[in-house]
Amino acid sequence: MTTSTRGTAKIPAVLVLEDGRTFRGRAYGAVGETFGEAVFSTGMTGYQETLTDPSYHRQVVVMTAPHIGNTGVNDEDPESARIWVAGYVVRDPARIPSNWRSVRSLDDELRAQGVVGISGIDTRALTRHLRERGAMRVGIFSGNALPDEGTMLAEVRQAPEMKGADLSAQVATEETYVVPAIGTKKFTVAAVDLGIKGMTPHRMAERGIEVHVLPASATAEDVYAVNPDGVFFSNGPGDPATADHAVSVMQAVLARRTPLFGICFGNQILGRALGFGTYKLKYGHRGINQPVQDRTTGKVEITAHNHGFAVDAPLDTVSDTPYGRAEVSHVCLNDNVVEGLQLLDQPAFSVQYHPEAAAGPHDAAYLFDRFVSLMEGQRA
Prior knowledge:
By secondary structure, this protein is of the alpha/beta class. Helix content is 22%, strand content 32%. Strands 10, 11, 12, 13, 14, 15, 16, 17, 18, 19 and 20 form an eleven-stranded mixed beta sheet that branches. The longest helix has 14 residues. The radius of gyration is 21 Å and the shape is globular.
């Protein structure tokens, strides 16, 4: 991946999908070439949080909202220390950002971090193509000396696929760090970082939880060394079928009946720990407008998602597992994909979406309170 100087708006760029479909536009951000899995995000706001979400590692994100960059970039909203997307695709980038917190343009930020993008293409047509054909490998090429389409397509087809990718260790912290409780400390939580977003420990800290964020390589001994009242498994990128280490750590937590909460990748890890399989979705769920029903209350929530894999668990029956009875607690109303699991005989649950979503919606924020209730019940 290479970068360029200012003034990329007139530099030609080409997006090439692995099935051979091609879109021509203009360079946006850095100039060069990049490869990843083409996915689309349906959020109309929150592009800065999307870009910095570690779950998007090795993915080229297509924004379905036509106008991106209006509010520029600030230093308060990133979910991590860097942009993680492999590439960025927009239709109409804002010419001038306008927001009281903006300190630079999105174009400048992409360029500074070496993120190759493309603008000026029909993102609705590209999104429809991905909905029909499924997420697939893609390349973005920009510059005044572009290769021929045959060469670009061959390079795209040589790129690694997302299925079978083990990526958590590439995005997780290397050293344990602590996010202190806000106000009076009530609980200690060990959070296994599989690609955690900054807002997640903050949401727990707001509830009086001191969060010890541990590397993805943490063992069960590392988890219990902090004497946790609860254990959390975060979101993250890659194929859950590769996450054998995280599964074994979670099984150790379940064996000790410690209150447990997982989100996104953590939901898939719980599914595997209980003996369920996982599978790759055709194009996944991404964006901030996905309807999910909490079956424990009947409530329908609008939720934020970023996942390309799902748990294969029976929707309408209680399953016997090595750790007690389990059931599907949440389901997507668009396609009946499993969006949450809970154990009925011990304090453990998970959801496939993001209750911490900084850009909203906040319908599911109560799940952190549910985690607190589990820890209160265990302490009592």
